[in-house]
Amino acid sequence: MTVANPNRDTRKAPKTRRVGLTVNGQYYQFNIGSESGEISPTHTLSWTLRERLGLTGTKVSCDQGACGCCAVIMDGRAVLSCKVLTIECDGKTITTIEGLKDTKTGALDSLQQAFIDHTAFQCGFCTPGMIMTARAFLNENPRPTEGEIKEALSGNFCRCISHYQVIRAVMSVVEKGK
Amino acid sequence: MGDSYRYIGKPIPRRDAAEIVTGAALYLDDLKFQNLLHGKALRSPHAHALIKRIDKSKAEALPGVRAVLTWEDNPGWKGGTPRNVPVLDKKVRYVGDAVALVAATTEAIAEEALDLIEVDYKILPAVFDIDSALKPNAPLIYDEHPDNILPGGTIAFGPNCLKGVVMGDVEKGFAEADVVAEGTFGYENIPNALPAESVGAVAMWEEPNKVTVWGASQAPYMDKGSLFHVFNRQVEIRCIGHHVGGSFGTKIMCWQVQAYAALLSRATGRPVKVMFTKEEHMSSFVLRIGSRIRAKVGMKRDGSITAIQGTWHVDSGYYSFTTQSQVAVGSGELMIMAQCPNWDLKNIVVVTNRNASGITRGFGGQELKCSFIPLLCLAMEKADLDPFDVLKKNFVKPGGGYFWRDGNWYDYRGIDYSVAMDKGAKQFGWKEKWKGWLKPTAVSGARRRGIGVGVHGNADVGEDAAEAYVQLDPNGSATIFLCAAEHGTGQKSNYARMAAEALQISPDRISMTPADTLVTPFEFGPVGSRGTYAIGSAVINAAEDAKRRLFELVAPKLGVGSQDLETADGVVFVKSQPERNLKWRAMGFDRTITGHGRFEPDFTLCNCMMSFVEVEVDTETGKVILLRVVLATDVGQIIDPQGLEGQLNGCIGSAGIDSAIFEETILNPSSGHILNANLIDYKWRTFAELPEIEHVALESPIPTHRYHAVGVGEIATSPGPSAVLMAVSNAVGCWLHEYPVTPNRVLKALGKIAM
């Protein structure tokens, strides 16, 4: 892992193929290949986040795009990081659950705080994916109806059934924003 | 009552809330280890076969591979009840059985190595259901178990483990009955509780005979106990727990994956992690037991049950570790809901060539009740009785009793739950909606609505011993030593809250040790709704013991007897003269005070949950929509309002109500492959399809511990599935007796399709 000049466009075409991505405000560049320390073309973004960058807040459950546990925000949209290859992320900007806090003040995102206030989790395993999906959705649509929130989160698996408290938490953020 | 408490019943955020919402909470797969190897299992494509030959040489030669293990490398480790299931065997008994284990430097290399292992099988005929397993001359899954029937009882519950219910005189009971119903009913769709986090383990072996296991279980002390036997009682075991990504009972026993990691670490001298993929989790970790009852029930016109006679067939899959325990507890739970003087209820535990059954929320009782209540419905229909009245009438009340798992009779000393049931019925509008058997509550074109009700109660709220220490620090803080991992119920926070209330210090001043068997005393694990009463009691007792020791130490300094003292906010004071006081510091800066708490099992109390459901059935498409659920219970005292809400809402997921509507594990009946072992094909309820859920949770003091509370988390699911069958049958006007009520089944019942 190397941390290089964030202005990628100025670098010369390298002999080794590289992939560069910004995660939680930090730029990372990896060589692509199958050697130790390189990013393989088969590596998913969730793998890279967890195994290379140590960002284990992103959870992997089904590993096939069905459960939403691994959701992160990429260029403003929620994506399933188990269904994105790291080599597809060149030039992308990614926020994970660890990057949601205000970087200067350390204050929690309003959704994180609302999830605490409403105990919108039980085992907590699906929570990071739930929060990231909801955050991307609220960024796009800050005044959704309850039905729209349910639809936006319908790809997020929660087995404890914290759905009701999640909806209340998200709605509380919507109400505060009004 | 609640208002006199500072912390009990108050809306306090969970102590791990910030960790969870920031992604800092560490689950098993998030832990980092030096020199970690990754383990994988090669799984059998056949349901029943002998391994004739395994060639692992190519796999071993793959760079990065550190060990390839087969049955020949198994040092006799085995589990099961009885204990005759090798961790690796030369015979495979279901599609997905472990054939070989690989440890390699990366997961990808381990996976590649699996493909290089060559195996020749001698395929054997297989049995996939109770009927074929019990046929004369059926293929035998174990030579030790002729007829594919496992011996009843488990030594874990003592020499007289409940193996069925025999009491009174059933002939007399049927003679007294006004109506008798008879038939065969099952709950055999093996719904998967399916926590989001898969199961796994990391093991680090130390020669000659020590191993540390980092598990995914909520109960590391149970891991230590089960592994002790699996490893032939020759290995010193330390188990450590972490955040658990859901369990619903299932993860309290993960002996196989833990044994895989331990075997591989033993072979390589390095820590080895084995994490099941979701497909492995769904096809090679344990499932719910299959349940089928062939029985007869007698009832009087006043709704009293006069006799229950029959046989409960339990499909345990290819082995059992806990099925006999579930049979014992399930039988007792049926007695709690059906206070009947005459019983002859036997059971048969059958092995089949499908993945094994294990522990799941409901623990035998949900499975038995889902089979029994449809039978009871036929009797209630014959007697033209309202099921709410009958279920309320027959549930255990003060003066009643039941046999419990150890085979002993227990006189019930708890409260009458009829009050909660009545409140629930009122909230639901039961009396207004009930139109009689097989009659819808409302019809609108092709859509018909129906209602149903179910009930469940469990005396495991006081099961098994629990131990805890509470250590007081001179700075006015305390530490709880307790072997419980947080698995979603919020109970870890609640133990701190219970100790905080007893010590009158803020929960923020209380630390908790990790769930580590090297650090903490024995604790059975948060299962069976026992967390509140059993584990809570151990913590409370430890806090009170610590307080007593503190008072004994401080009393001479205040010139009073220790009985004259009380404490709050880290200050000990004379009750009658609070101005005479000393800070905890008075114990001395060089001292801690440790209180010991133990809870002895108590089966004289039970919890209760009644579920009312309303469904809408589209008689053209066959689709069943769950509209509304009302849960009625009495918890004695609410400890944690938000946690209680979450646990009760859990009634629909984790193999609860939805196991009657769409959840099922589908086996290919000719090959034994699970056809829906993934989160796309296994259906689960989404945000877009949530029913209304309402809770009626009363707080009538229950004689448990100082907070008079009883746990109900586990049982939120259990009364739901049979209530759905009842509701759908009432909606469409004919009986549906199979789970789940898929569109096909509904349309078939309506005579619209042949199936």
What report would you give on this structure?
The complex is a heterodimer of chains A (178) and B (755). By secondary structure, chain A is of the alpha+beta class. Chain A has 2 domains: 8-98, Ubiquitin-like (UB roll) (Roll), CATH 3.10.20.30; 110-177, DNA polymerase, domain 1, CATH 1.10.150.120. Chain A has 5 helices and 5 strands, in the order E-E-H-E-E-E-H-H-H-H. Chain A has a 5-stranded mixed β-sheet, with helices on one face. With 755 residues, chain B is α+β, with helices and mostly antiparallel strands. Chain B has 3 domains: 2-24 and 464-599, Aldehyde oxidase/xanthine dehydrogenase, molybdopterin binding domain (Aldehyde Oxidoreductase, domain 4), CATH 3.30.365; 31-124 and 199-275, Aldehyde Oxidoreductase, domain 3; 290-461 and 604-749, 2-Layer Sandwich (Aldehyde Oxidoreductase, domain 4). In chain B, 25% of the residues lie in helices and 25% in strands. Chain B has 18 helices and 32 strands. In chain B, helix 9 packs parallel to helix 10 (365-382) and helix 10 runs parallel beside helix 17 (720-732). The mean pLDDT of chain B is 97. At the A-B interface, helix 2, helix 3, helix 4 and helix 5 of A face helix 1 and helix 16 of B.
SSE diagram, text form:
The complex is a heterodimer of chains A (178) and B (755).
Chain A: E1 18-23, E2 26-31, H1 45-52, E3 71-74, E4 77-80, E5 93-95, H2 110-117, H3 127-140, H4 146-152, H5 163-177
Parallel strand pairs in A: 1-5
Antiparallel strand pairs in A: 1-2, 3-4, 3-5
Chain B: H1 17-22, E1 37-43, E2 49-55, H2 57-61, E3 65-69, E4 78-79, E5 85-86, E6 91-92, E7 98-104, H3 107-116, E8 118-123, H4 130-134, E9 149-150, E10 165-167, H5 170-176, E11 179-187, E12 200-206, E13 210-215, H6 220-230, E14 236-240, H7 255-268, E15 272-275, H8 278-284, E16 290-299, E17 305-315, H9 323-337, E18 343-350, H10 365-382, H11 387-394, E19 401-403, E20 409-411, H12 418-428, H13 430-433, E21 442-444, E22 447-456, E23 466-472, E24 478-481, H14 491-503, E25 510-512, H15 531-558, E26 565-568, E27 571-574, E28 577-583, E29 593-599, E30 609-618, E31 624-634, H16 641-649, E32 692-698, H17 720-732, H18 743-749
Parallel strand pairs in B: 1-15, 13-14, 17-18, 24-25, 31-32
Antiparallel strand pairs in B: 1-7, 2-6, 2-8, 3-7, 4-5, 9-18, 10-18, 11-16, 12-13, 12-15, 16-17, 19-20, 21-22, 22-30, 23-24, 23-29, 26-27, 27-28, 30-31
Helix pairs in contact in B: 9-10, 10-17, 14-15
